[in-house]
Specification:
Alpha-Beta Plaits; 2 helices; alpha+beta; four-stranded antiparallel sheet
Length: 85
């Protein structure tokens, strides 16, 4: 059996936390197959909140360690999905 993990990250203050999140994602880049990030934008301003969706490779132990590191960043909410096939 194979398992695929998808992480959804809600960053409540992306301007404040972007640097720390980038360091963690670079450190764990070997786990990230796909990364999609977005935030609200209009002609006058960018939203301080943002969402990142990560498609991960690796194993349960590596995913748990990565999620633990992410959870230590203030203002980040994590949701995950696993698909076993």
């Amino acid at each position: 059996m194979k398992e695929t993990r998808i992480l959804g990250l809600l960053i409540r203050d992306r301007i404040k936390e972007a640097g720390r999140l980038q360091v963690l994602m670079t450190k764990n880049s070997h786990l990230i197959k796909t990364r999609l990030g977005f935030h609200e934008l209009n002609e006058n301003t960018c939203s301080r909140a943002g969402v990142i969706i990560l498609h991960l490779t690796g194993n349960e132990k590596e995913w748990k360690a990565f999620e633990q590191e992410l959870s230590e960043v203030g203002g980040v909410e994590i949701q995950n999905m696993s698909f076993v096939y």
